[in-house]
Amino acid sequence: MALQTTIIFSFLLLISLAMADSAPTAKPLDSSSSQSATVQIVYTERPQNEEPEAYHIRTLSAVLGSDEAAREALVYSYKTAASGFSARLTPAQVSEISKQPGVLQVVPSRTLQLHSGPGGLQ
């Protein structure tokens, strides 16, 4: 069981790194609500009998208070390699969404740069 957990965690970490680099840039929200909001990747269970984006909006709405606020915060819905979404969230919202049913993990989005050897690509 521990080996399976380690493999799953490693897989999620690799997916998060790949997805973070490919996530589209979010449109800025108004400055009063987004001063400390950063893009987070929220991994969820695969929804049953519901479209993934609708499930993601519903999960965000439970924390943000409305479908409109959820749609504004949503950056991208992941539906193929992993189930989840990226959204602009404050630290308090990250804490709250982490407690929502079906949410598996929340990680900050990061952009990684690949380094080439001496001389770079020619």
Would you write up a description of this structure?
- The chain has 122 residues and is an alpha+beta fold.
- It is built from five helices and four strands, in the order ααβααββαβ.
- The protein has helices at residues 2-22, 31-34, 52-64, 67-73, 91-98; strands at 38-44, 74-78, 84-89, 103-108.
- A four-stranded antiparallel sheet has the order 2-3-1-4, with helices on both faces.
- Strand 2 (74-78) and strand 3 form a beta hairpin.
- Helix 3 packs across helix 4.
- The longest helix is centred in the first third of the chain and has 21 residues, at 2-22.
- The model is unreliable at 20-34 (pLDDT under 50).
In short:
The protein has 122 residues and is an alpha+beta fold. The chain is 43% helix and 20% strand.
Using brief descriptors, characterize the structure shown.
122 residues, alpha+beta, 4-stranded antiparallel β-sheet
Helix-strand blueprint:
Blueprint: H1 2-22, H2 31-34, E1 38-44, H3 52-64, H4 67-73, E2 74-78, E3 84-89, H5 91-98, E4 103-108
Order of helices and strands: HHEHHEEHE
Strand content: 15-25%
**Main structural class:** alpha+beta
Look at the structure and give the mean pLDDT.
79
